Amino acid sequence: MSDTKSIHTLNARGHVMLEVTRDYFKVSPxxxxxxxxxxxxxxxxxxxxxxxxxxxxxxxxxxxxxRREMALVFDRDAISNNWYGLAVFQKLIPxxxxxxxxxxxxxxxxxxxxxxxxxxxxxxESVMLTRDVDYSYSSQxxxxxxxxxxDVMMQRFHEGLLDWNAYVGLxxxxxxxxxxxxLSTMLASVFLKHRSIIIQGHEDDRSNAExxxxxxxxxxxxxxxxxxxxxxxxGTLLSYKIERPVYKGFAVDTEFSLNAISPDPQPLxxxxxxxxxxxxxxxxSEKIGSLEKAGLGCxxxxxx
Length: 304
Hints:
By secondary structure, the chain is of the alpha+beta class. Among the domains are: 60-237, no CATH class; 272-301, no CATH class. 34% of the residues lie in helices and 17% in strands. It has helices at residues 17-25, 29-49, 58-61, 84-92, 116-126, 151-161, 178-184, 231-237, 251-259, 277-286, 288-293, and strands at residues 68-75, 101-108, 128-129, 141-149, 167-172, 188-194, 197-202, 225-230. The chain has an 8-stranded mixed sheet, with helices on both faces. A hairpin with a 2-residue loop joins strand 6 (188-194) and strand 7 (197-202). The mean pLDDT is 94.
């Protein structure tokens, strides 16, 4: 394949299809590079059949230094409906800007007994509470994560939820924190909002001519149009990956991210970034926000 096209994101962190394919069929890096490009072309073609341009989804899939991210926290114990996700999104959907693009993820804040203190501390450090909370166990909280936000958008969500008792508060997750890192290991993509279109995944054996609202939330009631693609495409190419440091044990995602841009990927740990001292001083004085967002606010993390 001579025409290599850019890819907004590739998710092998929470989606195992690429790893299973590579390991089972003993696929070489060069062949996997071609397969990733083929998947990208397939996604572009299916999206185009639904009058959506892949290029227009970049702002919902790629972090933007000029935009914010947030985690909204809800207390399940304060929601009478057993389908608490529905209750939450009934409140959230009207608060979205009709012309904006976002990835929306959600999760129950789960963890076993030995992690409860860590989960509590991380949440206490980062969440701006709107009311007193009787914290019994981490899984009583349902968290919705939204990217590509302006300050005005964040304020609109916050103010629009203040009168609802189930709304606990929000965390500005634009920059790295323990809470954000923990969420990155839990959150699952719910939908991608592209202006007035909601994009979700559907079963791989369902026809691409169909469009289904797989999560069942009331988008259509608020004037949105639902479009869906096979899950193997949405799971790998249309799922936002929350920024976090590279940790040992999560090498597969890094490997595939490098393989997505090169048929001959090299181990990331073998690379060094050589930064001139004057350039480093400029970055620390003029671009400190970008460094903090990348988790590089301390010069100890940089090789000079």
